[in-house]
Amino acid sequence: MAVLAAAAGGALSAPAAAEGTMPTAGRPGQVEFPTHCLPPQEAGLPPADGPTRARVSVDNPAPRVGDTVTVTYQVAAGPAVNPAGGELPADVLTPTGRVMLAGAQSGEVTVVGARRNGPVAAGAPLPAVTMTGTFTVTAPGGTTLAPGAYILHTGHPLDLATVCTAAAPAPASERLTATPLPTANLRHVALAAAHGKPGDKVKITGAGFTPGAAVTVAGRAGAAETADRVTATADGLGTVLAELPVTDRATTAVVAYEGAAWSSGRGSGPAAYTVIAAAPPAPGTQKLTVTAPSGTLGMTQAGEEIALGAVPYGDGGAAPGRIGTVTVKDTRGGPAGWTLTGKVTDFTGPGGVRIPGASLSWTPSCTAGAGSPSPCTAGSAGAVGPEGAVLASTPDAAPAGGTFTVDAAVTLRVPRYTPPGAYAAVLTLTLS
């Protein structure tokens, strides 16, 4: 776990999307829904009822949990009319609205548009508008987006607001499907003895399994299972106690797993075991036996704090930095790989002002040390966020293990006019 600090300085704003953008093939597009528009009382106009034609789109229809998605809400036409007594000048119309989420993730997204309109004659319909906003994906699965209420603010000659609400819920105009982040696998086993004669029963203690799950404890020879096998049930804490009779002389390790077969996501790493033949050596000979016990999977990190660059007040922009170098050492001696993930909290500054953790992105790198059997793959460049992202990983392979150096350049996007001061967040790394 590392603390990130940035000297920074207000509110996030999203750029307005170009009007007239067409939806991607195979995805929903423009929809129509009945609307009741209430003009400002000062205008002396009756309510306007009629259809609104609108489109909602996203910049990423296939995000991961924790990603920030930009939403664009385009109103092509609606029943609202110019509430001013005369012609409305150019660039005095400011739209705001809501986009409704349903499905895997529910709620609403606030969207805001720029002042961007041509002159509007007295009593004429108000023009098309485009609004944008962002939200963080919090749940895997399919989520639909539908246009909701919108408000048209006209700043001439007075600040007048025409409020348009849906007389009936609008149909979905966009959908996205989010994928979950990889979860940490904390399953592991320990043996009461690292060697024994054929037929000896080895006491096994496992931890990190799903409470109540059926767990298979099996012998392993390299990447293949041997004939040695028992089953047990994990208790309410995910602990497994078992005795495994080891009769297959090919057994060199013991693993435990949930499901029909071992996998890196639902199985433990191997614990080394040696079968020692009971037959005495021939006269004049001596049998030499050596045991290479399995080790552990662990990591160390250089430094406890990460200082990011300063961003001048009013300018906004990128605050660069680099995480403390992480060294991963895998001496388990089995076929299981590992995954190193990271997640970051929001950056908190003076008066509780926050910069979202999703504003932090990284570009990871990973190098395998000399002689390491496993290759190391760096995670994808992109946002880290509160839900996390992969920093580096090694695949399941036989043999696996080694020493690895993991690093990452990080960048915090600081909004313009963020209040001056020091902002801090916590970056947590998890190795599994």
TrEMBL record:
<feature type="region of interest" description="Disordered">
    <location>
        <begin position="9"/>
        <end position="65"/>
    </location>
</feature>
<keyword id="KW-0732">Signal</keyword>
<protein>
    <submittedName>
        <fullName>Beta-xylosidase</fullName>
    </submittedName>
</protein>
<feature type="signal peptide">
    <location>
        <begin position="1"/>
        <end position="18"/>
    </location>
</feature>
<feature type="compositionally biased region" description="Low complexity">
    <location>
        <begin position="9"/>
        <end position="18"/>
    </location>
</feature>
